């Protein structure tokens, strides 16, 4: 296993970052455009679409920690995590495209079943690929600051993918003869890019050799009772890692808030700001461009500060900007642009800092138990992240339904109030609630050095 001082080559960092380009394209397109595709193009009632998406997350409550446990116990000549990328790239591409292919004229029940099935299959394959992809990073180096550097490159790849997913999706849709065809073609293109990006990581990045202690972990047991006992034990020890629970709680609140913004922004621009759909790529480009410019600024901040303090500073910036959106009126495009600059600066911290903190909490767990259960940690982290995304989508759908939203027409004052709350005030509240958990987060640079020293003596 790589030691504490392992430095990664530029080629390795760039190769690893490529995977995030394809994966984040899918996440961004679905966060920003999936709900409005269902309601305004596929003409599915918001409550039906929201309930169908929730079905996938019921399965997600099992598959994230289960798949994490599986990767921890996988032994393959192709690598513990890399093997899932090799065999998962093509199926993920196909499933991602299918999400955007809702047949016209479906009844409410048929639409519910179609959305629930296609999204659940996609989500399952996404977990099987994304979780091992993320877990690779925790084992590539154990240096406190080198992890931040790797995360900065990975975050830049994620940002490029997020930009493509949020900006190019509406552009490709507008260029097509009709919206339904546009979404189908864009979804197919994005699925292909995701598959290729994952394949590049599998080709370019190799996992480090495992330590003797890690090789001693038993492979997946075919005996079902023993398997579930092992899953339960691994889950129990993971949940005894206090720094991990604090970080996961804070990151989940932040993810909930930011996904509320992403899912509501299209409605806010079109109906509250009274712009047109052509304005949406420009605003998204502004937001993500600022995030990208801020990433290496945050890297320098983290090099000088503790990671939790840098994260808190970013959340303060982001929350302040989101609150300001409440006072935006029709036509205030310059004001929205200025606010998005502030939000983007703060959001940049979330794109880099928590992903550099998760491996540190895994080192803490290794010190406690003597075993690196990387997959289970990322499984639980991914589970809470996805539940937050889904809850945000359901909340937006519920708000639209309760406030009387009607697609493709001028909205009532009640509907506009709901859209504004979901875009600004409620997300800001979520970010503020995460700050106390980060204040109490105990792993500092010096504490991490002590953890590595004690782990080496384990």
UniProtKB/TrEMBL annotation:
Keyword Hydrolase appears in the UniProt entry: no
Membrane-spanning parts: 32-55, 83-103, 109-129, 150-171, 183-203, 244-268, 280-298, 310-329, 335-357, 378-399, 419-441
Pfam families for the chain: MFS_2
Keywords, comma-separated and alphabetical: Membrane, Transmembrane, Transmembrane helix
Similarity field: Belongs to the sodium:galactoside symporter (TC 2.A.2) family.
Protein name in UniProt: MFS transporter
Organism: Acidovorax facilis
Lineage: Bacteria, Pseudomonadati, Pseudomonadota, Betaproteobacteria, Burkholderiales
């Amino acid at each position: 296993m790589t030691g504490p001082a392992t430095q990664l080559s530029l080629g390795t960092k760039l190769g690893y970052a490529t995977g995030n380009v394809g994966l984040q394209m899918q996440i961004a397109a679905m966060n920003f455009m999936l709900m409005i595709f269902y309601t305004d193009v596929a003409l599915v009632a918001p409550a039906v679409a929201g309930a169908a998406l929730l079905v996938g997350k019921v399965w997600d409550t099992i598959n994230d920690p289960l798949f994490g446990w599986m990767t921890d116990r996988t032994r393959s000549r192709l690598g513990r995590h890399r093997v899932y990328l090799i065999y998962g790239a093509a199926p993920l591409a196909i499933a991602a495209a299918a999400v955007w292919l809702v047949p016209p004229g479906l009844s409410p029940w048929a639409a519910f079943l179609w959305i629930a099935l296609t999204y659940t299959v996609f989500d399952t394959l996404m977990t099987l690929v994304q979780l091992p992809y993320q877990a690779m990073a925790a084992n590539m180096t154990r240096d406190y600051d080198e992890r931040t550097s790797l995360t900065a490159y990975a975050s830049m790849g994620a940002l490029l993918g997020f930009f493509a997913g949020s900006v190019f999706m509406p552009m490709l849709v507008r260029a097509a003869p009709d919206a339904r065809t546009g979404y189908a073609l864009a979804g197919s293109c994005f699925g292909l890019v995701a598959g290729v990006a994952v394949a590049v990581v599998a080709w370019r990045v190799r996992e480090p050799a495992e330590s003797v202690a890690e090789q001693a972990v038993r492979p997946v047991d075919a005996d079902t009772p023993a398997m579930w006992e092992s899953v339960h034990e691994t889950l129990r020890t993971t949940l005894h890692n206090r720094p991990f629970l604090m970080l996961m709680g804070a990151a989940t609140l932040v993810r909930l808030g930011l996904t509320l913004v992403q899912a509501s922004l299209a409605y806010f621009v079109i109906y509250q700001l009274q712009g047109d759909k052509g304005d949406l790529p420009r605003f998204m480009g502004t937001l993500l461009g600022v995030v990208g410019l801020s990433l290496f600024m945050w890297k320098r901040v983290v090099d000088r500060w503790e990671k939790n303090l840098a994260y808190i500073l970013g959340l303060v910036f982001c929350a302040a900007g989101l609150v300001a959106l409440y006072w935006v009126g029709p036509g205030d495009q310059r004001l929205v642009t200025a606010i998005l600059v502030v939000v983007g600066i703060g959001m940049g911290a979330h794109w880099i800092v928590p992903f550099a903190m998760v491996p540190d909490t895994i080192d803490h767990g290794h010190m406690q138990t003597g075993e690196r259960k990387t997959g289970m940690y990322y499984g639980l982290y991914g589970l809470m992240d996805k539940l937050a995304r889904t809850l945000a989508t359901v909340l937006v759908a519920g708000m639209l339904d309760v406030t009387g939203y009607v697609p493709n027409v001028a909205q009532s004052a009640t509907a506009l109030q709901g859209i504004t709350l979901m875009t600004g005030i409620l997300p800001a509240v979520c970010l503020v609630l995460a700050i106390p958990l980060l204040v109490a987060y105990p792993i500092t640079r010096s504490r991490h050095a002590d953890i590595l020293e004690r782990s080496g003596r384990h």
